Amino acid sequence: xxxxxxxxxxxxxxxxxxxxxxxxxxxxxxxxxxxxxxxxxxxxxxxxxxxxxxxxxxxxxxxxxxxxxxxxxxxxxxxxxxxxxxxxxxxxxxxxxxxxxxxxxxxxxxxxxxxxxxxxxxxxxxxxxxxxxxxxxxxxxxxxxxxxxxxxxxxxxxxxxxxxxxxxxxxxxxxxxxxxxxxxxxxxxxxxxxxxxxxxxxxxxxxxxxxxxxxxxxxxxxxxxxxxxxxxxxxxxxxxxxxxxxxxxxxxxxxxxxxxxxxxxxxxxxxxxxxxxxxxxxxxxxxxxxxxxxxxxxxxxxxxxxxxxxxxxxxxxxxxxxxxxxxxxxxxxxxxxxxxxxxxxxxxxxxxxxxxxxxxxxxxxxxxxxxxxxxxxxxxxxxxxxxxxxxxxxxxxxxxxxxxxxxxxxxxxxxxxxxxxxxxxxxxxxxxxxxxxxxxxxxxxxxxxxxxxxxxxxxxxxxxxxxxxxxxxxxxxxxxxxxxxxxxxxxxxxxx
Length: 496
Fold this sequence. Notes:
The chain is built from 26 helices and 14 strands. It has 496 residues and is α+β, with helices and mostly antiparallel strands. The protein folds into 4 domains: 7-148, Beta Polymerase, domain 2; 149-232, Hydrophobic Seed Protein; 244-438, Hypothetical protein af1432 (Orthogonal Bundle); 447-495, no CATH class. It is globular and about 85 Å long.
């Protein structure tokens, strides 16, 4: 856990940040511009945490200063807010970004407009990087809140001034393993509806940072407690109280949140109160799988964080598709409709096209892994078709399916049945990783060959023949060009 670093009354900053601060302090000193390190960088330095984000308040036009600093340090300049004079300098070589904001007069007035007391501290930036603890400007006693591990609002209007802080409070508490104090929690509950008016990209950034942390499943329940979850995702509200078949331990809403928690369990991120090591042991795991989930999908998102989002949304269309037929509860079409609903949500939150398509695919096919499981293990054809349709998301879907099963049964899990699911998972993954011909058969005949050999014109028939040929290869029925030609002749005769 983080703890305050106050040895010798000096904060010694080492790493790339110190070099950047040294250059910036020298630049500003030459121009005689008063400047202060503020916010999260001071907080994290006091806690002994590494940070690559630096916030500097200058008594000048921050946009102009940021532009000049970017040019001096060979970085990139990004204007963030022309009205409030906020600019960003990105230094890719150092993997650091510096945000400049403007203040006028007393820095304490600027701190009084910030969000949380642990971020309302400042240190004057002078030449050099040794920061004297005594010099910290701390008008609200943020150091005490750091000691008490508390996130507390600076005033009663912080969320009304900027509603993205509603989500930031939860993310910050999760990141630091702090607690939101009772008064601040009540303010969040009071103002939770304001999150709907925040620009989608700002919500997305905070949401993905929260989902990237272990324990996100538990925090989703907390977001619901304070009224933020359905304010973020109004579409989820309809799933509250929607009952499921008797084998399900929870209604649709709680099941969706438990699926995220169960997912973190099978991904080895967090414990889950409804399962233990006996449940986790048969779930396949390796460094290769861990790296797969950590792969970057887009800026700010990984396979792991987007899979958690898909787990939250996977049953979002169940309320509108619920029907009772012959005494059985059915949710026909909920995966397809849910994929469209999820795509609309991600578009609203300004996710990238790739992120949107990825999550929609996960929701659309979240039942697909169970469809491979017939008597015994899936056939090579079934495995081929599965990865053909799902691509790199195929592995993600398998773990979503496992989590979905756990979150359906809860503590009533049948351990023998569960082990069977895990054996199938291991078999499919082994085929995927080691028998490459099952996933990507080598090309022995292409479309031009087919048209030339059988005197066909370009069209759907050629595509269908290629598709059938690949499946036959995946099943091990065809290994040579001669066998392929014979197989295609038979298919053509059956098409007539």
